[in-house]
Amino acid sequence: MESAQPTGKSTIIWTALGVVVLLALGIAVHALTEWVPAATKGTGFGQIAKSIEFPVYAILVGFAANAILSVLGVRQKMSKAFRTEFLIKTGLVLLGASINFAVIAKAALPAIAQAFLLIAAVFLFTWWFSGLLGLDDKLRALLSSAISICGVSAAVAAAGAVQAKKEQLAYTASLVIVFAVPMIFLLPWASGLLGLSPAVTGAWIGGNIDTTAAVTAAGTMAGEQPLQIATIVKVTQNALLGVVAVALTMYFTVKSERAQGNTGIPKLGTLWRSFPKFVLGFLIASIAATVFASNVDPAIAEPAIGVANDLRTWFLILAFVSIGLEFSFGSLKEAGWKPVLVFAAATVVNLLVGLLLAVILWSGFSF
Question: Using alpha carbons only, what angle is made at residue 320 by residues 245 and 8, rounded to the nearest 5 degrees?
């Protein structure tokens, strides 16, 4: 049984302990990533172990630690230390330093086209299907935004825009994680099975896995080039989050809330408040690294970029461990089977439309 959240000085102490636990688990993941392939070399499992990337170990270790800390009754007390969003966004900004800005510029047009078409198709399908099943409009908005754009972040932005209940947000966020975690493993495997190119693989992963963290994990498993395209596609979708938040705010203010006499039009400042700022950091890091590498001796530039890559790996390891630590089945019992059916159906539509768009827009892409 989980204990209640601590207050005052005890909050600082438990958060500090949580940071220590998180760092220890991250070090364990790093050690496992290097030790398992070496220990199993020459065995039947050895070939499989060579292909397992750190996100797999990180998530599994996070789940195991989650169970242990929950049994001990301290996981919730330490929860402020498990900052998945902060860690993943910092890691992605650092990832920008390893991507030549020319690749981003070249990938911009298909990424924007894919983002607009995929978000529109999946959002409208989810909104229609959830309405068909009689779900509350505010829950429909959360589910549609989460599936079509960027998972938990989109659900949070939509919840603020439509003034959704905390229970609806918790439920949607849990569904995002439940569906995203298997995709981390399934999409890289399916891409290899279908013989997709690195660019198409990355575009499919970036456009179809709901959370940025899970996209990064799956892209890492698929390879460096798929990871780059997956990140560019997901960052492009993230950039449209503010637009969707403003549209939802206007819809619920002008129409859904009219009966309450609230007919004001939201200000454009909502767009900036909802816009994910790490997208700018990602682009700035890429531009700065590209300029740096072009004007500095490679003997100096390459080690510097290598340091950024090492830091990126550590931040992502801690982010994926946090995914496991933050996971909770509790909120999955609250809204019944209909939202699960909506999420499952929309995920299938997302996968099929996303694969079609990835093949059409990215088959001719070269790095």
Answer: 75
